[in-house]
Design a protein that fits this description.
The complex is a heterodimer of chains A (160) and B (279).
Chain A (H helix, E strand, L loop, with lengths): L2 E7 L4 H32 L2 H9 L2 H33 L4 H5 L2 E5 L7 H16 L3 H8 L6 H6 L1 E5 L1
Antiparallel strand pairs in A: 2-3
Chain B lengths: L1 E3 L13 E3 L3 H4 L1 H5 L20 H36 L12 H46 L5 H53 L1 H40 L11 E6 L3 H4 L5 E3 L1
Antiparallel strand pairs in B: 1-2
Helix pairs in contact in B: 3-5
The chains are: A mainly alpha (160), B mainly alpha (279).
């Protein structure tokens, strides 16, 4: 394997990436809401909720089960979000939101992201958010417009 | 189909003569339009094998009448709007300045004549009517001894019968017109809606039309995304300029560029579509 040439590209800025991210979040939320709606309808239709209440014996235990289910839904939502980003980045290099803004995520050596690198980058979104969103804001100040998650995953977002 | 005269005016009297009934039921229009339902006594059932050939013509006639009514109504409305607009925008009349040129004088006189013609006709018609009324009163006064004589009575009776018959015919026409006006307008409306629907359906089924709509939709979407991308990229640059103008010691005037090496195996698969190639 050898280098043939090089591409001079422009890294994408904070606002473009923020808009693309917002579009992706809307898509994820809508799809999750649909899934939750249908699951809830199925549970209600087949009387599973009533069965659980009777099986648990009293209302307090039933509410504990409901809380556990809520946490499970929350976790599934985030797992789904990570998979959404990871699958799109590793398969085609961009998510629907990034496609609208004509952005692409690549490795700093120009290659497409692998699946696990994509998962790492998506997980690092949470790290960037946990640091008072400084990981995202860093995009404005970095010379290559890389955020914290980009630095960790060794990636860059470019205008395609 | 014939209908006995006077059967809806004076049911007790014996009808004198048969008159043609132009009702919608007889023409088969009430059944088609289903808009002006008629009582069973007023709308006789269609006799099979009778007036079969007349139905399309009658439908056409109703459509033509409906179109004419609609057109006249629309024309009247537009004319009124135009008149209101002209009256509101007309300037107050200034002092009359007589033209010097003879051609201008002639032209103005002709225009004035044309504009005054309706008033002249109205005035003339009114005078003629007054004179005719006066003449008729005088003549009828002179002829009254003759016309009221016993010898003249059969003629008078015959004349009264003719007048009654004429009035009845006119009454029937009015009835048919009253019913036909609504039916015609409704039929036209229904036909127009149907034709518009058919045209839209036909256009929707044509592949070139659907292709055109799809292309224009895709074009609009592409244009929208291009605009969004361009504005977002410009906003990126503006944001960075603002931030670096606030923060001292930082200088980021130019938009950053990144040189990404392309490997042999990945060149075809991973190259950015619109990136500028540099050696």
């Amino acid at each position: 394997m050898r280098y043939l040439s090089s591409w001079r590209v422009r890294p994408a800025g904070f606002i473009s990436r923020f808009i693309a991210f917002s579009i992706d979040l809307v898509i994820i939320s809508l799809m999750t809401a649909l899934v939750v709606f249908f699951v809830n309808e199925i549970i209600t239709f087949f009387g599973i909720k009533v069965l659980i209440t009777r099986w648990m014996g009293n209302a307090a235990n039933a509410s504990t089960i409901e809380s556990v289910l809520r946490v499970l839904v929350f976790l599934l939502y985030h797992i789904y979000a990570i998979l959404y980003f990871a699958v799109f980045w590793s398969l085609i290099g961009y998510t629907p939101g990034k496609y609208v803004l004509q952005l692409r995520v690549v490795r700093v050596d120009g290659l497409r992201l692998g699946f696990w690198r994509s998962v790492l980058r998506a997980v690092c979104y949470y790290l960037s958010a946990l640091l008072l969103f400084m990981g995202f804001i860093w995009i404005i100040f970095d010379k290559n417009r890389q955020g914290l998650h980009d630095k960790i995953a060794n990636t860059v977002v470019i205008y395609s | 189909m014939k209908l006995k005269a006077n059967n809806h005016n004076n049911p007790g009297e014996e009808p004198e003569e048969d008159f043609p009934d132009p009702s919608d039921a007889e023409l088969g229009l009430a059944q088609e339009a289903q808009i002006v339902p008629q009582p069973a006594s007023e709308s006789p059932a269609i006799q099979p094998g009778q007036d079969d050939g007349a139905a399309p013509f009658d439908v056409l006639l109703h459509l033509a009448v409906g179109a004419a009514l609609l057109g006249i109504n629309e024309f009247k409305n537009r004319l009124q709007d135009k008149q209101t607009m002209v009256e509101s925008s007309s300037e107050p009349e200034g002092p009359l300045i007589l033209p010097d040129d003879e051609q201008d004088e002639l032209r103005y006189a002709l225009i004035g004549l044309i504009l005054s013609t309706p008033k002249i006709f109205n005035r003339g018609a009114s005078r003629v009517s007054q004179a005719a009324n006066a003449g008729l009163t005088r003549v009828s006064g002179l002829l009254r001894p003759v016309t009221s004589s016993r010898a003249f009575r059969p003629i008078n009776d015959r004349f009264d019968q003719m007048v009654a018959r004429g009035e009845h015919i006119v009454y029937d026409w009015m009835e048919a017109g009253r019913r036909g006006e609504k039916t015609s307008q409704a039929m036209l409306q229904k036909t127009t809606d149907q034709v518009v629907g058919d045209v839209v359906n036909m256009l929707a089924k044509r592949p070139e039309i659907t292709e055109l709509v799809q292309q224009s939709s895709i074009g609009m979407a592409e244009e929208l995304t291009d605009q969004l991308q361009g504005r977002a990229a410009a906003a990126d640059t503006i944001l960075e300029r603002i931030v670096f103008s606030i923060i001292p010691g930082k200088n980021k005037d130019t938009t950053p560029t990144l040189v990404i090496p392309i490997l042999e195996e990945e060149q075809a698969r991973d190259k950015p579509q619109t990136a500028k190639k540099t050696s």
